[in-house]
Amino acid sequence: MRGCMTMFRQSARIFAALFFASTLAHAAPAPLASDADAAALAQRIKTYAGASRVRWVVAGHTLSAAHAAIASVALHLDGSDQNLLSRVRAETFADSGDTDSGPPQAWIEPQLGKAPGSCAWQVWVFDPDAPSAGASALSVPLSNNDRLPVGAAATFRIGYAGLLQSRLYAFGETEPGAIRDLAISPDVNIPVAESGVETIVLAISRQPAPYLERIRTALASSAGQRRELGRDFALRGNLLGPGRGIGANIQVVGPNMVLAKDDKAAAPSRPELDPSELAETCQFSLMSAAKATQ
User: Fold this and answer.
1) Nearest Cα to Cα of residue 133 among 106, 99, 100
2) What is the dihedral of CA 257, 258, 263, 269, to 10 degrees?
3) To 5 degrees, how large is the angle CA 153–CA 157–CA 158?
4) Which of 118, 132, 196, 263 is the least crowded, having the fewest Cβ atoms under 10 Å away?
5) Per residue in 51-60, pLDDT tens?
6) Which of 115, 120, 132, 182 lies closest to 155, judged by CA?
7) Is the dihedral of CA 108, 84, 174, 115 positive or negative?
8) Spatial separation of the C-alpha atoms in residues 70 and 72, rounded to whole Å
9) What residues of the chain score a pLDDT lower than 70?
10) Structure letter (DSSP) for residue 234
11) Could you say which DSSP state residue 184 is in?
């Protein structure tokens, strides 16, 4: 657990430096040489709609060429998706130090820095299949409730920047009850599930959370591998609540924190709850990019 806690305590800056230092193979920028290319990029932009910190760059030999390429992409977006163009910006190849004079190209540009309202956890996804510029494969930070399409070789890291005396829980779930304890995973870069949707659930509590402690105990000998614990242990539907969806963000209250209603008393007979006793639950979803475009 010492190695796990060391991982949790690293800051987002450290994760960013580690990711961007990578020189592994990466996907080239997406070409925009034809109307078919523009349609493909429009679909891709829609696929990444749930990733709030993904931005797109469309570069051309001139700024006019870049804007024209964006206009072509816009023709393939429905009216309800036109707002996604706010995540796309135009630049010239020279802006990124490139002397390319060919057709326009597009790539993902992650929005760095802590997003407003994000939780104390940091999640970085490393995806060699995502279109990127430069010599490094793409790494994308996630905000709470984000939903990101990923390639088959994608991995992720998690970090924690809150109060160190808090109780920390980190789990990954595919089907309800199919869970792995991310805190004891032996991998530095944790592989994303090969099928389905990987729901990453990260919780913080000042007191041990009995439900999450049961899951942690059940996975104690798993060495970070996924185990089928059954629906009684499912995070979705139990901890996260039915019908709230993957994007839900809730506050968990321990049973000893619930106050009984006193119709006779004008004021509560017990002290008010301390908000710091609540547990923050953050979640993120990673899905197959191939399935997301089907």
Assistant:
1) 106
2) -10
3) 150
4) 263
5) 999 999 999 9
6) 182
7) positive
8) 5
9) 1-26, 99, 114-118, 135, 163-164, 239-278, 291-294
10) -
11) G
Report the DSSP beta bridge partners of residue 108: 56
Query: What are the sequence ranges of the domains in the chain?
Result: 2-292
pTM of the model: 0.77
The answer to whether 74 and 104 have CB atoms below 8 angstroms apart is no
First to last CA, the chain: 40
- For strands 155-160 and 121-127, give the pairing: antiparallel
CA atoms of 52 and 143, how far apart (whole Å):
7
Q: In 3D, which of 7, 8, 1, 288 has the Cα closest to residue 148?
A: 288
Instruction: Classify burial at 118, counting beta carbons within 10 Å of its beta carbon; exposed 0-12, middle 13-18, buried 19 or more.
Output: buried
HEC readout, 89-155: EEEEHHHHCCCCCCCCEEEEEECCCCCCCCCCEEEEEEECCCECCCCCCEEEEECCCCEEEECCCCE
Asked whether 234 and 241 are in contact (CB, 8 A), the reply is no
d(CA 45, CA 70): 12
Cβ–Cβ < 8 Å for 167, 209: yes
Contact 22, 126 (CB under 8 A): yes
| Phi, psi (deg, nearest 5) at residue 237 | 95, -30
Contact 151, 127 (CB under 8 A): yes
Query: Which H or E run includes 240?
Result: none
CA distances from 45 to 55, 100, 105, 226, 291 (A): 9, 24, 14, 31, 15
* Among candidate residues 206, 138, 204, the one with its CA nearest the CA of residue 168: 204
Specify the DSSP element, H or E, that contains 51.
none
Tokens of 55: 């931005």
- 241-252 pLDDT, tens digit per residue, is 543 333 333 333
